[in-house]
Amino acid sequence: MVKNAPDKAPLRTPLWAIGHLPRERRDRPSPSPASVQATFEAGAGRDDGPNSAGMGEIGGGPKPDTKEYDSSAPDRDRAWAAAAAVPDPEVPCVTVADLGILRSVEIEGEVAVARVTPTYSGCPATLAIELSVEAALREAGFEARVERVIAPAWTTDWITEAGRAKLTAYGIAPPVKGSNSIRALFGETVVACPKCGSEETERVSEFGSTPCKAHYRCTACGEPFDYFKCI
Amino acid sequence: MSDALLTFLLRLADDHLILGHRLSEWCGHAPMLEEDLAMPNMALDLIGQARALYQYAAEIEGKGRSEDDLAYLRRERDYVNCLMVERPNGDFGHTMLRQLYFAAFMEPFWTMASTSRDETLAGIAAKAVKETAYHIRHAGEWVVRLGDGTEESRRRMEAAIDALAPYVDELFEGDAVSAEMTKAGIAPEPASLRAEFDRTVGAIFAEARLTFAPAAYAQTGGRQGRHGEAMGFILADLQHMQRTYPGATW
């Protein structure tokens, strides 16, 4: 769906001010067979409560004009490009497409529907990412909806080659390939230093600055660095 | 069927919420910086898993309650977590042993649940199983380090084993709800996870030169909503804001 640019809904920033969310968005249920779609469309199963009306609506405001639209394939490509360019809020050197967490973007009727997968169950950036993707689609002129997909579960093997190269350049060691199995979690993996490439590295802590990273140190060049954990 | 599924999901979600809350209490109080990061990280995993389960439970219930309503606005007797997760943190070794026990119980559970006939549960499980394996490794390393450490650290680990022993058996309790889940191909019978739990904990205890001593008696009741004194204090902390300002949003 394409709409005319001039009447585009105003975007409000910051997009990941998680505190200022309309209740219905925060309460969005996990996707599950069929029922979620029905819930969203019918607006059923929501309990907005007496105080929720008008409280901090991000991405609210006037709805875009949806009278003119064209659901041809180029639209889908354009929608994909808009969504795919959204950076990860915690690791901004990579996009959601680089990480492999943007599963699909489809044009359904008048709405661009993006499906996104969380990295970790408790990843605090999940909601920010969903809002950013939705905002990017709106900014590109689409009426937009983002759905959370949890099966099949994301693994670090879905990070693209480009994403791995960007992580390394940013100073984060990309996950060791093919090591996302449970057994491999317990084995010793060799993590190369993203600065000097040496494999003489040691783990400082299994838990780093974000849930997806562990903390390492290079004993060759002395550089401390983050390692994107395999999962 | 949906009644049993709801009870089953709430038990699982409550376990994760309450243990996640307990771990979060360490934030700013852990013995070293790395652990101060590790503990909230594990808490995030648990609370993330709890959220997914509450969202699904709310959907199954179909009464318009949200994940927040289920997490924050039930009465103590409505929470159906096992008693182990509500136990006070004790010292660091005690917390690590509790984490090892819970993760060693959940890892085979999630592994089996990842092939559940319930697609939503299978999706949650596929993600959670790897996070849980990570928790076993982390907690297990500390149990080994402290158990096979100094005289003082060993004394504390032995005290933790004794203190937590009465709460182990409850993890493996079954009832009509678990039987219905097993029959429907949704989740494994808790008792069937005991062998794997014993293997995981046994291997770590052997390395730590620790011995598991079963308790003379086992505490039970959490799955029916009968909790220890600690639970009321947890809920006072958890529910304070929502009870004081109903419906408040940030």
TrEMBL record, chain A:
<dbReference type="Pfam" id="PF23451">
    <property type="entry name" value="Zn_ribbon_PaaD"/>
</dbReference>
<dbReference type="InterPro" id="IPR056572">
    <property type="entry name" value="Zn_ribbon_PaaD"/>
</dbReference>
<dbReference type="InterPro" id="IPR002744">
    <property type="entry name" value="MIP18-like"/>
</dbReference>
<dbReference type="InterPro" id="IPR052339">
    <property type="entry name" value="Fe-S_Maturation_MIP18"/>
</dbReference>
<feature type="compositionally biased region" description="Basic and acidic residues">
    <location>
        <begin position="1"/>
        <end position="10"/>
    </location>
</feature>
<dbReference type="InterPro" id="IPR034904">
    <property type="entry name" value="FSCA_dom_sf"/>
</dbReference>
<feature type="domain" description="PaaD zinc beta ribbon">
    <location>
        <begin position="183"/>
        <end position="229"/>
    </location>
</feature>
<dbReference type="InterPro" id="IPR011883">
    <property type="entry name" value="PaaD-like"/>
</dbReference>
<feature type="region of interest" description="Disordered">
    <location>
        <begin position="1"/>
        <end position="76"/>
    </location>
</feature>
<protein>
    <submittedName>
        <fullName>Phenylacetate-CoA oxygenase subunit PaaJ</fullName>
    </submittedName>
</protein>
<dbReference type="Pfam" id="PF01883">
    <property type="entry name" value="FeS_assembly_P"/>
</dbReference>
<feature type="domain" description="MIP18 family-like">
    <location>
        <begin position="79"/>
        <end position="145"/>
    </location>
</feature>
<feature type="compositionally biased region" description="Basic and acidic residues">
    <location>
        <begin position="64"/>
        <end position="76"/>
    </location>
</feature>
UniProtKB/TrEMBL annotation, chain B:
<dbReference type="InterPro" id="IPR007814">
    <property type="entry name" value="PaaA_PaaC"/>
</dbReference>
<dbReference type="GO" id="GO:0005829">
    <property type="term" value="C:cytosol"/>
</dbReference>
<dbReference type="Pfam" id="PF05138">
    <property type="entry name" value="PaaA_PaaC"/>
</dbReference>
<dbReference type="InterPro" id="IPR009078">
    <property type="entry name" value="Ferritin-like_SF"/>
</dbReference>
<protein>
    <submittedName>
        <fullName>Phenylacetate-CoA oxygenase subunit PaaC</fullName>
    </submittedName>
</protein>
<dbReference type="InterPro" id="IPR011882">
    <property type="entry name" value="PaaC"/>
</dbReference>
<dbReference type="InterPro" id="IPR012347">
    <property type="entry name" value="Ferritin-like"/>
</dbReference>
<dbReference type="GO" id="GO:0010124">
    <property type="term" value="P:phenylacetate catabolic process"/>
</dbReference>
<dbReference type="InterPro" id="IPR052703">
    <property type="entry name" value="Aromatic_CoA_ox/epox"/>
</dbReference>
